[in-house]
Amino acid sequence: MAILPAPMKPRWLRDLLRFLPLKSQFVLSGSVRDLQAHETTPGSASAVPLSMVLTNELAAAGYERILAYDPIAGLRVAQATGAPATHDALLQELGLQSANGAAPAGTDLLGTVLERVVLGVGPATAVIVDFASRLIMRSDVLAAAEHQLFTRALVLTQRASARPVGRNRSPLFNSILWLVDKEGDLPDWLIIDNPRLRHIPVAKPDRLARRAVAASLIRSLPGAREASSEVLGRAEQDLVDETEGLLLMDLNAIVGLGRAEGLNVTAVADAVRRYKVGVTDDEWRKIERSKIASAEDFVARRVIGQTHAVTHMLDIIKRAATGISGARRGGRPRGVAFLAGPTGVGKTELAKTVTELLFGDETAYIRFDMSEFSAEHADQRLLGAPPGYVGYDVGGELTNAIREKPFSVVLFDEIEKAHPRILDKFLQILDDGVLTSGRGDRVYFSEALIVFTSNLGIYSTDSSGARLPNVTAAQPYDEVRSKVRSEIDSHFKVVLNRPEILNRIGENIIVFDFIRPDVAVRIFEQMVVSILSNVKEAGYDISLAAAARTQLQSLCLADLSNGGRGIRNQLEAHLTNPLARALFEHERGAARFEISKVVVGVTTSLVLGPAA
């Protein structure tokens, strides 16, 4: 029987073995349904059920007889690896009728057997009660039979005594081990302040546990037999690195998926990705490199006058598409960008343009207006309500969206308006690339591009609470960028006391410039062309006389404080609305006109004449 050496044993197991001579009952909770690392052959560990680990370790500790119980199969004798079968003899000794090595037993009979075992005087005996959480309906309101069982268990903790047993004459109790989902599943009065019972949490597998089983798992993948030790070592490292937070059962399933889909041992990371996001195709690999390489002109046509922002954003996209970013380790998002700057300068437009560049549709991005999440409990909208609350069965808006579209651009607009409690969730996304929904499902962001937009740093507040401009269009861009960055740093570090979020974003803060007059002219011209093109699709051929164009430009560019959005609003007031009014009132026969003059009053009107 192979047993893991002490340094490799998980903490919960070391705790259990240390207290076997001191406590008569144990409650194991947490990851009890997961597999556990166990040495099956000298120097080689495999992932095996917890029941097998407990049986072998208890046998090695001196327990000659081990019983296992679950509510369906009843009682059976658990055999340590390599031990002779003793099924019927032990069950008959306890007064049980066995069939095929198992004796059906309900709650009443289980209580009787526990008493016979704990107070018995023969060889050291242990009973492992699996699925103990299912023995009762509610831990705070017990039925008569349930109350009887656990009252008997409580009394037995006090009546049990340790005695020297086995070859080493080590003191051991006849022990009971309860396996539960969480500590609160059993009555509090059995566990709390009970000096003869110990609660042992079974944690998720740490890096050492994953590394212990990685070697044996990797060797079952296609190509492993022919692979060099260096290739196998890299594959093991990938499996350990990419599965942070997963169970050993998940590692087993990942390798099973790899075998089923014929993935080579060199593609372990791809098997992990497929298991996490639940899709086979990698949409990032489908993106044509030539498309991204020539994207600067495409993006710059829509995000005008922000060359530095476009270049920086495309650098992030290239890192994401090639997968060379160090952030890929551990399942972090493909990329993250924090777009800061004045209103109407193209921050949201850049996110839309990037989405169209990557996925062919600018509406394919997932957008959240964070001004809607300013309340303390608004995180429940994103993640879903916890069990027992209204909306628990619906799930969260964010977690549902990512589960449906793992390959996506996720835009969090005006992030500074979100409640600080929600920012902690972003820390989980940026650090681990995973969120746990209210229903307990793990949702992965490893294939998403995360984009934040913010107006932080544009305005500051004086001692009286008045809002003052922190930067203006009169300042050069370098000064604007420096001041905005400084205010963003101060907001996260001093105001929110969350410098770690800023740390995760790193140098991916992109500060947009104000819309300068020369840029404003280009935006104006592009918007006019777009409006007239839309009018032409409606069946009208409209042109602008030079004088009218100059007059319209003067009206639209008089105030650039609202950026490109302000120009669009002015065009709507001085061109789109009056043009729609004029065309509606005009006879249907004529379809070609020239706007010769813009007449400004309470409402703007246009003078239309026949086109030249």
Tell me what the structure shows.
This protein is of the alpha/beta class and 612 residues long. The protein folds into four domains: 6-202, Rossmann fold (3-Layer(aba) Sandwich), CATH 3.40.50; 207-279; 289-511, P-loop containing nucleotide triphosphate hydrolases (Rossmann fold, 3-Layer(aba) Sandwich), CATH 3.40.50.300; 517-610, Helicase, Ruva Protein, domain 3 (Orthogonal Bundle), CATH 1.10.8.60. Helices cover 43% and strands 18% of the residues. Strands 6-5-4-7-10-1-11 form a seven-stranded mixed β-sheet, with helices on both faces. Strands 13-14-17-12-20 form a five-stranded parallel β-sheet. Strands 21-22-23 form a three-stranded mixed β-sheet. Strand 4 (65-70) and strand 5 form a beta hairpin. Helix 4 runs parallel beside helix 5, helix 13 (295-302) crosses helix 14 and helix 18 (420-432) runs parallel beside helix 20 (499-505).
Structural class: alpha/beta
Low-confidence runs of at least 5 consecutive residues: none
Kindly report the oligomeric state of this protein: single chain
Helix content: 40-55%
Q: What sort of overall outline do the alpha carbons produce when their principal axes are compared?
A: elongated
Record the SSE blueprint.
Blueprint (H helix, E strand, L loop, with lengths): L10 H9 L5 E6 L4 E7 L2 E6 H12 L3 E6 L3 E4 L9 H7 L8 E2 L3 H12 L6 E5 L14 H16 L3 E3 L4 E3 L2 E6 L7 H4 L5 E6 L4 H12 L10 H13 L6 H13 L7 H10 L5 H4 L2 H5 L1 H8 L4 H16 L12 E6 L6 H13 L6 E4 L9 H5 L13 H8 L4 E5 L6 H13 L1 E3 L5 E3 L4 E6 L4 E3 L5 E3 L7 H19 L3 H7 L3 E3 L5 H21 L3 E4 L1 H11 L6 H23 L6 E8 L5 E6 L2
Parallel strand pairs: 1-10, 1-11, 4-7, 7-10, 12-17, 12-20, 13-14, 14-17, 21-22
Antiparallel strand pairs: 2-3, 4-5, 5-6, 8-9, 15-16, 18-19, 22-23
